[in-house]
Amino acid sequence: MNDVTIRRRCQADLAALADVLVRVHARDGYPVEGVDNPEAWIAPPAELAAWTAVYEAQPIGHVSLARAHDSDDAAILWQRTTGGDVSQLAILARLFVDPGHRNLGAGALLMGAAHRFAAERQLAVALDVMLKDHGAIRLYEKLGYRRLGTIGHEHTGGKVEAAAVYFFA
């Protein structure tokens, strides 16, 4: 029986999610930007909506959607490939699940909540994912995401990480 539930993220979730993110970073190197200020990274100002996965009353995972901008690498590649209007695109981001609670289906449940939100607003969904993050790529492909191409994700100190752009087909 799966006891993972999904709810809209609330302010009270941030401290626990920050702790989860620090564990994720220690294990997986995600996010590549590091975790100097995890609460700010989890809840950026341009967010449309965000969800928390909860197991046994504890936050164990997170995902968010943000409105796409013309300057987003994922949005640029999505627009070039599909011909779609960037104003009708949401960017899925900040997906992570506690390493100790993986294989409970939390990632897929979080993605489902984001997909429903986007569909209700007639928004397409795209994302970028570092090529090193094989587990995330497997999940996205299993859920029906289609790879559009690769980009260089620039982050801390001008470092560039190879990434793929996917969209929900």
Automatic annotation (TrEMBL):
Residue stretches making up the N-acetyltransferase domain? 4-169
The record's listing under PANTHER family reads: AMINOALKYLPHOSPHONATE N-ACETYLTRANSFERASE-RELATED (PTHR43877:SF2), AMINOALKYLPHOSPHONATE N-ACETYLTRANSFERASE-RELATED-RELATED (PTHR43877)
Name of the protein this chain belongs to: N-acetyltransferase domain-containing protein
> Out of the domains of life, which is the source?
Bacteria
Q: Name one GO molecular function term.
A: acyltransferase activity, transferring groups other than amino-acyl groups
Q: Which UniProt keywords apply?
A: Acyltransferase, Transferase
Give the PROSITE patterns listed for this entry: GNAT
Coiled coil ranges: none
